[in-house]
Amino acid sequence: MTPLITVTVYAIAALILALISGVFLAFSDFVMRSLRAASPTSGIEAMQQINRKVYSSVFLAWLLGMAPAAVLLSFYAFFFVEGPASTWWIAGGTFYVIGTFLVTVLGNVPMNQRLDPMTPDGIAAQDYWRTYATFWTLWNHVRTVASAIAAACFFVGCLIYV
After folding, report:
1. Is the pLDDT of residue 162 over 80?
2. Where are the transmembrane segments (predicted)?
3. What is the pLDDT of residues 41-53, one digit of tens each?
4. What is the distance in angstroms between the CA of the first residue and the CA of the last residue of the chain?
5. Distance between CA atoms of 19 and 106, rounded to whole angstroms?
C-alpha cells in the first residue's frame, strides 16, 4: 500500500475503534446504572431486549469485523511497516483482540446468553440480575478502556507514520 492509503486505512480503523469504545462507554457510564436503578424486572427485560436487538446492528458488524481487521492490520504493520508506527499499530490490534473481542466473547456474551431465556420476574432472574449487572458492567469497563487504547494506538501510529 502507498503511505497515503496505509494511513487512511489505519485512521478509518482508529475511528471505528473509537466509536466502538464510545458505545461501551455509554453502557458503563449511564445505561447499566439506569437499568440497575429500575426495578429488577424492568432492568432484566430491557437488557434482554438490548441484547436481542444488537444482533441486527451496525455496532455488532463493527465489533466483530474489527477483530479480523485488527489481526490483519497488525500483521501488515509487522511485516510491511518500518519504524515506530508499526509498534503502535501492533499494540492497537493486540489491545482490541484481547481486551475487547476476547472479553466480549468469553465474558459478556456468555452472561447475555444465560440471562436471555430467563423470565424477568422469576426468582432465578432476580437473583442472577445482581451478579449479572455487577460483573457484566465490570467486563464492559475493560472493553471500553481496551477499545479506547486500541483507537489511540492506531491514531498515534497514523500521526508518526512517514
Report:
1. no
2. 6-27, 58-81, 87-109
3. 999 999 999 999 9
4. 13
5. 22
Find, among 139, 9, 112, 1, the residue nearest to 54 by Cα.
112
Give CA–CA dist 69/138, Å, rounded: 26
Query: Grid cell 481486551 — which residue?
Result: 99
- Per DSSP, the residues of 93-154 read HHIIIIIIIIHIIIIIHHHHHHHTTS-TTSHHHHHHHHHHHHHHHHHHHHHHHHHHHHHHHH
Cell 432465578 belongs to 124
Distance CA 114, CA 145 (A): 25
Name the grid cell of 20.
466502538
Identify whether the C-beta of residue 23 lies closer than 8 Å to the C-beta of residue 151. no
Dihedral over alpha carbons 75, 77, 78, 82 (to 10 degrees): 160
Residue 13: CB partners within 8 Å, gap ≥ 6? 66, 69, 70, 73, 154
Q: Which of 75, 77, 60 is nearest to 19 (CA)?
A: 60
Reading the block at residue 36, the C-alpha cell is 440497575
